[in-house]
């Protein structure tokens, strides 16, 4: 299907009115009735796609958004992708054409206000998450935001508050929670396999940023675009340890940039990198347990991801996302722990190695929108992760432990872990 012309910013009326965008979407959807996000008496947004049975989703960002979110949503029975947005409209058009999406645009502000959109995925570089999520939330849309949630805690807190105020379902895409080994580890920990948590460590040495002539310069290498590996992967790792071990009380850490120049995309010459490609941090959990996370993205080879969790009664180890081993005190040697049988999904496997966990997280998001059930990882979870990331940077410059959750304005209220 050919993408429709981009929508202009001009002439966009207040919510519920009709704009060029609305006309485009409505026409493209062959007359389906468009409706704004109406509200239940309790303030939670009503799903306006309920009549059609499918949630109408717009995806902003065609990198990970185009490669993973769009195909995942396209194969889910409960969702349809009604629009895709990129900075360059032709990028959006390419993804729209490949997936039969009726609207391609470069104007996210108009898109999020369109009454033909029920929910928005924000999959753009992190420095854009705050303005884009706020715009979507303000328009009453459910939001799924990519990680890291924001540039800093102040932005994240803002997003939490706006989502609460609008009564919509707002989640952060920490999809690793939905990989079989990690989900099983969570189940075992909740059942008491570890006993009292004592220690957690996560180490990844990889080569993704080792070669200055390999991956070109981009937002990931720029501090002012909220690039850096601490945000890009550290956010996932902090989320995992917090999910398994509970709230984090204090943090100490440091970041470093080992590869300081990187080739410019499509041009001769090198750009200066100021975002981190290495980081190491120490965590003290509220229950007294200690944790470490050490990531090197400039190693000559790939070690895989190694996670060890120990408690008073047991120990678990995750090797990548495929293997879980463990032992219980006095019950023999470390042994393989069976994971639930997974249905083979050739389509997901062919799309991206994260297609399955992302689909599972999207399923949680849609279920929460439909039923009003709580969903995690929520914006509140994302803000608590963000507080840890901010703490690492402060600790690195100030040379001390940083206490979290103190002061009059906590990152977010209590969450269900
Ligand atoms: N959950 C995960 O496991 C996972 C994995 C990878 C990435 N991510 C996250 O996904 C986000 C995007 O990363 P990426 O790797 O996909 O980056 P990317 O390849 O650089 O793609 C960024 C996308 O954002 C679009 N964009 C930039 N500015 C925009 C604007 N003003 N309006 C509309 N669209 C705009 C870009 O448009 P153009 O193409 O026209 O420039 C592009 O489509 C990041 O937060 C990243 O951390 C998450």
TrEMBL record:
InterPro entries tied to this protein: Gfo/Idh/MocA-like_OxRdtase_N, Gfo/Idh/MocA_oxidrdct_glycsds, GFO_IDH_MocA-like_dom, NAD(P)-bd_dom_sf
Domain GFO/IDH/MocA-like oxidoreductase positions: 184-316
Keyword Ubl conjugation: no
Origin superkingdom: Bacteria
Coiled coil region boundaries: none
UniProt entry keywords in alphabetical sequence: Oxidoreductase
Domain Gfo/Idh/MocA-like oxidoreductase N-terminal: 55-174
Listed GO MF terms: nucleotide binding; oxidoreductase activity
Pfam families found in the cross-reference section: GFO_IDH_MocA, GFO_IDH_MocA_C3
PANTHER family: BCDNA.GH03377
Protein name: GH109
Organism the protein comes from: uncultured Thermomicrobiales bacterium
């Amino acid at each position: 299907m050919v993408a429709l012309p981009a929508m202009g910013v001009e002439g966009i009326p207040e919510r519920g009115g009709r704009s060029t965008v609305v006309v485009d979407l409505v026409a493209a959807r062959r007359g389906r009735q468009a409706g704004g996000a109406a509200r239940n008496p309790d303030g939670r947004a009503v799903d306006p796609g309920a009549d059609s049975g499918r949630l109408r989703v717009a995806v902003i960002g065609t990198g990970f958004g185009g490669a993973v979110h769009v195909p995942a949503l396209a194969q889910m029975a409960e969702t349809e992708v009604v629009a895709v947005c990129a900075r360059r409209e032709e990028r959006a058009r390419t993804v729209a054409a490949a997936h039969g999406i009726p609207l391609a645009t470069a104007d996210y502000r108009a898109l999020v206000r369109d009454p033909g959109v029920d929910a928005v995925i924000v999959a753009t570089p992190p420095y854009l998450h705050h303005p884009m999520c706020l715009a979507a939330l303000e328009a009453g849309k459910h939001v799924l935001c990519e990680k890291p949630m924001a540039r800093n805690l102040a932005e994240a807190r803002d997003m939490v508050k706006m989502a609460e105020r609008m009564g919509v379902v707002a989640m952060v895409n920490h999809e690793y929670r939905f990989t079989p080994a990690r989900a099983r580890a969570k189940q075992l920990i909740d059942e008491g396999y570890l006993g009292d948590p004592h220690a957690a460590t996560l180490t990844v040495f990889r080569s993704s940023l080792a070669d200055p002539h390999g991956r070109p310069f981009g937002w990931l290498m720029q501090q002012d675009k909220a690039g850096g590996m601490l945000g890009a992967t550290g956010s996932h790792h902090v989320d995992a340890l917090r999910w398994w071990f509970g709230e984090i009380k204090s943090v100490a850490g440091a970041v470093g940039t080992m590869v300081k120049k990187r080739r410019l995309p499509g041009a001769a010459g090198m750009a200066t990198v100021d975002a981190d490609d290495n980081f190491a941090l120490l965590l003290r959990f509220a229950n007294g347990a200690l944790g470490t996370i050490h990531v090197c993205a400039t190693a000559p080879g790939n070690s895989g991801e190694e996670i060890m969790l120990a408690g008073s009664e047991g120990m678990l180890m995750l090797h990548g996302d495929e293997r879980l081993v463990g032992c219980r005190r006095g019950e023999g040697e470390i042994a393989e722990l069976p994971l639930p049988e997974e249905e083979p999904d050739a389509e997901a496997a062919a799309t991206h190695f994260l297609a399955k966990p992302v689909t599972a997280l999207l399923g949680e998001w849609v279920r929460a929108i439909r039923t009003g059930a709580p969903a995690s990882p929520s914006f509140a979870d994302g803000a608590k992760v963000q507080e840890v990331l901010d703490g690492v940077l402060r600790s690195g410059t100030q040379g001390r432990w940083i206490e979290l959750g103190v002061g009059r304005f906590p990152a977010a209220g209590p969450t269900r872990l």
